[in-house]
Write a structure and sequence with these properties.
Layout lengths: L69 E5 L3 H13 L3 E5 L10 H6 L7 E4 L8 E4 L1 H12 L7 H31 L5 H25 L13 H15 L9 H4 L6 H11 L2 H6 L10 H9 L1
Parallel strand pairs: 1-2
Antiparallel strand pairs: 1-3, 3-4
Helix pairs in contact: 1-3, 1-6, 4-5, 4-6
């Protein structure tokens, strides 16, 4: 990482009152270049791998397919769960490869070949269109590709299919990014950035609550998001909704569930409970967890 001038504000000595808003002699103004502020991100849990450039940083190639032509490169995160849940619901053969994003595995040559954007999940279908391999990235794109290829989970009518698209794009553009931004400030941002963290959790926390309210109101009187059966909409939205109840726990012990008062979203809770009973979804939540591609297979092998 190149050396840049120090930021125009000393982040170590700022005065932050109890309400968390910074006090300074003059309003903030941007420096001439963002690079002058890079050092202010030091202390966040991904600081060691954050760079403003793309491309492979290490050489590593993934093994050839074993279980099936579809290869998943992922981790047990809400975005990763979206695709692994769908794969398990489809019941198709596939290989899963754990990508440790904390160690920078997403910047290996093998992963970048699947996704030049170096974000999980990514995939390669060696039996793509016309029988040719195709690289797949962005969780919504991967899900839509799989649903179209196997002609499943897009609703039973043209109307339901479009409703599925509405909610898939809602999830991709709103629910996922906003919840992730909240999670960053809640859990991963530098400890000393009190003012920034208070602003971040308030700004994004409020928006996450609004989005949860949108989903909760939609689910009133419904078992599934679209129609009378599970669809891509349920599988895309469920992991991020689940994170409000089970994820983003600060080391103080305060988690998203308490902080955002998530228990008030009764319809979401009931919907999560119904979906959570499905064996395929239960397996989907285990894919690429604990450093193991499919933990239930490892458990079966240990019993033999």
């Amino acid at each position: 990482m190149p050396d840049f001038p120090e930021p125009n504000v000393n982040i170590k000595s700022r005065a932050v009152p109890l309400n968390g808003r910074e006090v300074g002699p003059a309003p903030w103004k941007p420096p001439q270049k963002v690079e002058e502020l890079y050092s202010s991100t030091n202390g966040n849990q991904f600081a060691s791998i954050n760079r403003p450039t793309a491309g492979a940083r290490t050489q590593f190639e993934y093994p050839a397919p074993k279980e099936g032509p579809f290869q998943l490169y992922s981790l047990a995160t809400p975005n990763g769960f979206k695709v692994s849940i769908l794969l398990e619901e489809l019941g198709i053969p596939y290989d899963a490869h754990v990508v440790n994003i904390g160690k920078g595995d997403q910047f290996s040559s093998g992963f970048v070949a699947a996704n030049p954007n170096s974000k999980i999940p990514a995939a390669i279908d060696f039996d793509g269109p016309d029988g040719k391999p195709i690289s797949l990235f962005e969780s919504g794109s991967i899900m839509l590709y799989l649903c179209k290829k196997h002609n499943r989970f897009l609703g039973k009518t043209a109307l339901e299919e479009q409703q599925c698209m509405n909610w898939l794009f809602w999830q991709m553009s709103g629910q996922g990014p906003m919840t992730g931004n909240f999670g960053h400030f809640m859990v991963y941002a530098p400890d000393n950035e009190i003012g920034a963290r208070n602003y971040g959790v308030a700004r994004y926390g409020m928006e996450v609550q609004r989005l949860a309210d949108v989903l909760d109101k939609h689910l009133e009187g419904r078992t599934f998001m679209v129609g009378d059966d599970i669809t891509i909409a349920d599988m895309a939205c469920m992991p991020w909704a689940r994170a409000l109840f089970e994820g983003y726990k600060h080391k103080s012990g305060v988690g998203a569930r308490q902080f955002l008062s998530a228990d008030k979203y009764k319809n979401i809770k009931a919907w999560l409970e119904i979906l959570g009973k499905r064996p395929a979804i239960q397996r989907g939540f285990k894919v690429c967890s604990g450093g193991v591609p499919k933990p239930w297979l490892a458990q079966q092998s240990s019993k033999m």
